[in-house]
Amino acid sequence: MKKKVLTVDDSRTIRNMLLVTLNNAGFETIQAEDGVEGLEVLEDCNPDVIVTDINMPRLDGFGFIEGVRRNERYRAVPILVLTTESDAEKKNRARQAGATGWIVKPFDPVKLIDAIERVTA
Amino acid sequence: MDMNEIKEIFFQECEEQLAELESGLLKLNDGDRDPETVNAVFRAVHSIKGGAGAFGLDDLVSFAHVFETTLDCVRSNKLEPNQDVLKVMLKSADVLADLVTASRDGGGVDEGRSRGLVKELEALARGEMPSGGASAEPAKPAAAKPAAAKAAPAPAVAPTDDSGFQPIPFTFDGFGGEEEAVMAPTTFEVQFKPRRELYAKGNEAALLLRDLSRVGEMSINCDTSALPAFDKLDPEEAYFSWTIAVKTNKNEQDIRSVFEFAEWDCDLDVKVAQTVAEDLPMVPVPFDLSALDDDAGADDGNDGAEDQTVANAVSAAETASNVTKLAAAAARVEKKESQSAAAAAAAANAANAANSAGQTIRVDLDRVDRLINLVGELVINQAMLSQSVIENDTTGTSAINMGLEELQQLTREIQDSVMAIRAQPVKPVFQRMSRIVREVADMVGKSIRLVTEGENTEVDKTVIDKLAEPLTHMIRNAVDHGIESPEKREASGKNPEGTVKLTAKHRSGRIVIELQDDGAGINRERVRQKAIDNDLIAADSNLTDEEIDNLIFMPGFSTADKISDISGRGVGMDVVKRSIQALGGRISISSRPGQGSTFTMSLPLTLAVLDGMVVTVAGQTLVVPLTAIVETLQPEASAIHSFGANQRLISIRNSFCPLVDVGRILNFRGTQANPVEGVALLVESEGGGQRALMVDAIQGQRQVVIKSLEANYTHVPGIAAATILGDGRVALILDVDAVVAASRGQSLRQDSGMKSDMSLQATG
């Protein structure tokens, strides 16, 4: 069965890149544009892994991760943070919010798939 | 979709983000301190940087990074976005836009400028105020410094990079690549004890062990001693720990990097094994860890097991990883009821949010254009159908007529809806103007604020596209000539900062754009003198103030004493007027000495259709734009007064109004028609005055589809365009302003000569 990935990113460019990369790698991809939409979509799509950006309108990545971790059904879903922030502070905040791992932009398909493989069975 | 298409999307997105950035900065400039505004500005730059990084646009990335760092200081309240700071930021936004353009279309940017701004931005991030700004308290630089330093993490790695920024290349397997070749296999002993947080964050011990097994030859021991009795077992606690021996020719870093995501949430010890721990029963790996790749793997583990310990190790790992799943499953059952209710509520919320946010789709412009053309044909076709029914059916069968009326209404609605698709707010054009104001003001050393109003006013995209050029020129003029120098302004008791106000609004089916400056106004003495010097008017001509003001629209007129770099590019206000007129628009000026000038442009909302009055003039069918017509009346002989040689006036409610014979002006006939036999159309001309246009008869009122004449002929003076009527015949659309102007004594022929000399296309 195809693994299902939920991506949350406000940038259309990055959303398209994620979609192409993930589809080519044989994943089923569901996309949301910000944290609020991400949490809404989550209820229906039951993803195997979530990839999220940090800086987003309405609800940022930290808030989104906390929201997922508070959700009884989905709190164990691995979450990868996709962000340009390479400094420890942001990474730490994401971890405290409950992120499983991270992928540092610039976006690289190999890194993305590699990271997803690492956190999914 | 391939990378090129995504890149195209990226550049589209950049445009949007740049607009967002600029409007956000301008809001901040106006004193808006809403954190969401700052966030939006930050996100805009951040998004551009993110996308640019993916496409390897390094110049863009490094500039965006510095910009972002400074914005982050504003976001975290380390930097107060005062006027001086925002000035630097607005300039930076301009450079960012240039860099985006350069990345898309090739070509270079002003490197000196961008480098200078990078320095200024970095100084701001360090808490240094720009010169002339408020001096920063000593505490501020100290607070701002770490942020700046942190966000520029690799200055030593990339010394060639001016900004000190370079994305850290991050690979999972590339560490220590050089040593790899020379290193002999080493055996590492890894102690790995997950804490419960590791599972809570979605990591799994089993997956980490699987990844570790890929590093080298591995044997493993699982310590299950901490596992309590079943009744005391907390399903989410981490009870197991592992001792792993890995024989590999990779180094310690490679092993640690396997645990990169987990290192905060486990006790991890990696060391070179002195002796293989003999007291522990180590199980050689590979055992089948790939069983983890499937959810049904629990059984496989037992099947492939030769040794009970192996099975223990595997199932222990799996148990550890599955507890959260079990817990989740348990929770699922309990919460099923409330979940579905919550889901329903969430769906309802989502629907509401979607409605309020306004859903949009992106459509290729060509498709919309095609649709608009087709609807245009439909309108013509519908009119033709109505006409032929009326002609062939004198009995006026009501069913057919009613059906036709409904069809007409539907066609009209379709047309309106289709036009609405192509309607766009004037905002992007207005935003471009704010940059022009900044740049020109900078160049001439003036301080000028652009205030915009009604930027959400919508107008057809074809109009918007053609609006930018005349508007740019007028803005340059207003900044260069309209507003005085700060010293002069101060001397005359004005705010040294000048204001240019750009307003858009809808008024009776047209869009009206006003450009108002609070400068010195038109210097009528000088304008008059210049016009005399340039032989535009006779030295003794007696002109009203309004007429003098309008002289600036004459070809070849410029009051600037020396041609400046800004507005003296050989394009005068006459060209602005021409291009506005070419859009079916009008422009007028009003000026008050010492208080400034206002240019008012009125444009049609669309270049595709117009409501017109179909009239007959000397056997020809013409269409007069309905928006120009104030009133129609049947003149009585007593109301007609002769004036001069062949001028006539009509008195309407005790005021006199010049009578213009359209047939005579257009040379349809040689002699003046008798006004009493025709109909007078009272029209408002651009100067504000009224004229009565004489036509022979009114046929009716109709919406017509505009067909450009200029595609097939050159510009025909007096005629704006053509259309196809219901009976299939071509009718010309009257250019009311040109006809009125011609009636003032300027002949249409002369008009056309000016046009070909000074047309906008010729001057670019």
Can you offer a commentary on this structure?
The complex is a heterodimer of chains A (121) and B (764). Helices cover 45% and strands 19% of the residues of chain A. Chain A is an alpha/beta fold and 121 residues long. In chain A, strand 4 (79-83), helix 4 (88-97) and strand 5 form a beta-alpha-beta unit. The mean pLDDT of chain A is 84. A 6-stranded mixed sheet of chain B has the order 15-19-20-18-17-16. Chain B has a 5-stranded antiparallel sheet with strand order 4-1-3-2-5. Chain B has a 5-stranded mixed sheet with strand order 7-9-10-12-11. Chain B has 5 domains: 3-151, Four Helix Bundle (Hemerythrin (Met), subunit A) (Up-down Bundle); 177-327, 2-Layer Sandwich (Alpha-Beta Plaits), CATH 3.30.70.1110; 367-424; 426-604, 2-Layer Sandwich (Heat Shock Protein 90); 609-763, SH3 type barrels (Roll), CATH 2.30.30. In chain B, helix 1 (3-29) packs antiparallel against helix 4 (83-105) and helix 15 (427-444) runs parallel beside helix 16 (461-482). The interface between A and B is large, with 51 and 61 residues.
